[in-house]
Amino acid sequence: MAELFSPAAWARSAHIQTIFGSLRLRVAGKNEMVDIAQETIVDAGNPGRLLGYHSRQT
């Protein structure tokens, strides 16, 4: 059976986990997904456009 995820007491807040997930502290080295990502602009109707990056799974 898989072990349940149990963060430290100071990291149990969903807000804190969201913040840590967006920080670059956990990034070590080169990210291949970023290197192969293609910029995509999606028309969201007048007057909006969305910019995103797409990396195909191989």
Topology overview:
Elements: H1 14-22, H2 32-36, E1 38-43, E2 49-54
Antiparallel strand pairs: 1-2
Count of extended strands? 2
Structural class: alpha+beta
Topology order in helix (H) and strand (E) letters: HHEE
- Indicate the low-confidence ranges by residue numbers: none
Task: Provide a brief overview of the structure.
This protein has helices spanning 14-22, 32-36; strands spanning 38-43, 49-54. By secondary structure, the chain is α+β, with helices and mostly antiparallel strands.
Could you explain the architecture of this structure?
This protein is 24% helix and 21% strand. The protein is extended and about 45 Å long. The chain has a two-stranded antiparallel sheet with strand order 1-2. The chain starts with 13 loop residues before the first helix and ends with a strand. It has two helices and two strands; from the N terminus they run ααββ. The chain has a domain at 30-58.
Descriptive labels:
about 60 residues; alpha+beta; two-stranded antiparallel ribbon; extended; single chain; about 25% helix
